[in-house]
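JOB MANIFEST
job_type = single_chain_structure
chain_count = 1
residues = 218
[input]
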Amino acid sequence: MQRIAYGEHASQFGELYLPDGVAQGAVVVIHGGFWHQRYGLELGRPLADVLVKDGFAVWNIEYRRVGGDGGWPVTGQDVLAAIDAVDIGPVVTLGHSAGGHLAVWAAKHSERVVGAVAQAAVLDFTEHITHRALELCTEEQFAEASPTALVPIGKPVICVHGDADEDVPVQQSIDFCGVEPQAELVVVEGAGHMDVITPGTESWELCRAAVGRLAGGC
């Protein structure tokens, strides 16, 4: 694993994992934590460990968050800058919770992103978690920051969400897939918010399979 800075701020860096031999695709891992400074890319390391063993180049990124000079549009700009910072070819974004928001948002805005896997993602700022979204941006910015407001994304999006999620309601993914023509919904019965980023769980295996389907064609 190699740590690489993509800017001068302490939060502008990522960790690059390269497989033995030729990579079969590339994945950008974007951690969640409701965009707050207290959560970092350590959340993505277990996922990166699995995916690099699967043969993917993996870029686990950090970005400026709320409470650490982040907010909108800085947080989104950091994600786009990170995606462009390393030459690993076309990428699939894999993001959890708030990172899922950024994964889908980046799919809309970056030519390098060929698809997104949204893990229990925040996809509509106007529903369920509006009070959280208002910590990232103003209500006037919802139209440019909220993925549901940006449909069609123009890339395939696979939404994996547990129906027992108490942090981000599964309805976020259900409703998004109802309006996004290239979205696929995968609901995991009895799964909670953290199951999708816990290797060994059914939820994670479904996310892993989704990455394989999208990134394998990069």
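[summary]
The longest strand covers residues 113-119.
The CA atoms of residues 30 and 95 lie 5 Å apart.
exit_status = 0
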